Amino acid sequence: MRSILLTTSIIALSISSCAPFKMAVHEDLQPAYDEYNVKGRQGILIKQKMSFGEYSTNTVNRSWTKGNSSHMGLGYIDPNRMEWVNIIGTEYINRKQTVRYSLNNGGLQSDVFCVSRFNAKDFNIGRSENSVLNIGLDLLGKGGKSSSMYYVQIYTSDKDDRPWELALDNQESQGRPNKYVGYLAKSRTEYYTLHPVSKVEMKGKTGNTLLGAVGFEFRNKEGKTLAAVSLIDKGMIYLGKTTAEERFLLANACTALLLQEQIG
């Protein structure tokens, strides 16, 4: 699975060594958006912190989950959120493929939990019928059969009793970047779609890499792109001119995607 997770790094290396490519920005964002260079993604990961624009993480905590009980899964430390966070069991805790961080922008603060490199069929879906996994495993590519899934829970406020859930199939997103769709969802009516980006730009010209995805776009229910993240080199984040709360949510999701390939 490591080769799949490192695909974007290989793509980024091959691109940067030939010419100053950048991920192409969707036309929906071009009229008005903020472009951020990411700091802290690469280099020594001990006490790692990431920042871009007004957004910054606390120290990224890797392999943070502990416990021996099968009821102690992702995020078990908060009993008020058990229904939502008790999805990943001890099998993945023991594999140490988890990341936890908080993001803030000087006003809002989040709590984010991530798990990488696992098989979708091993999900313990839990009780919540509104979980993105219960909304339909068919949303995750080929019926959730991938053995290289990435799963994220984002609490954008300490008052949240239900997280936003991000589900990404790495195999499908790299193998079929023009067809794959992932999801960032809170309920059946509150969601964004996640789309791989395989187009790059150089000297004002745009073309396909032919090598898979170099980043991802987030689109709202109406299909409009509101944010994007480039995985090339140190990473870049693009946020559309929407509400502060929506930008904060999408900034969290972009951060999680930038941290993914470092897991494991």
SSE layout and pairing:
Blueprint: H1 2-5, H2 7-18, E1 22-23, E2 33-37, E3 51-52, E4 55-57, E5 61-62, H3 82-85, H4 90-95, E6 98-101, E7 103-104, E8 111-118, H5 132-135, E9 149-155, E10 164-169, H6 170-175, E11 182-185, E12 191-197, E13 199-202, E14 205-208, E15 215-219, E16 225-230, E17 236-240, H7 244-260
Antiparallel strand pairs: 1-13, 2-17, 3-4, 4-7, 5-6, 6-8, 8-9, 9-10, 10-11, 11-12, 12-15, 13-14, 15-16, 16-17
The total count of strands amounts to 17
Shape: globular
Considering DSSP H and I runs of 4 or more, what fraction of the residues is helical? 10-25%
Number of H- or I-type helical stretches:
7
Write the element-wise H/E pattern from the N-terminal end onward. HHEEEEEHHEEEHEEHEEEEEEEH
- pLDDT < 50 stretches: 1-17, 65-77, 136-144
Structural class: alpha+beta
Strand order of the largest sheet: 2-17-16-15-12-11-10-9-8-6-5
| N/C terminus separation | 10 Å
Mean pLDDT: 75
Radius of gyration: 17 Å
How many distinct folded domains?
A: 1
Sheet of most strands = 11 strands, antiparallel
Measured by DSSP, the beta-strand proportion falls in: 25-35%
Features:
264 residues, alpha+beta, 11-stranded antiparallel sheet, 3-stranded antiparallel sheet, 7 helices, 17 strands, 20% helix, 29% strand, globular
Gist of the model:
With 264 residues, the chain is of the alpha+beta class. It has one domain. It contains 7 helices and 17 strands.
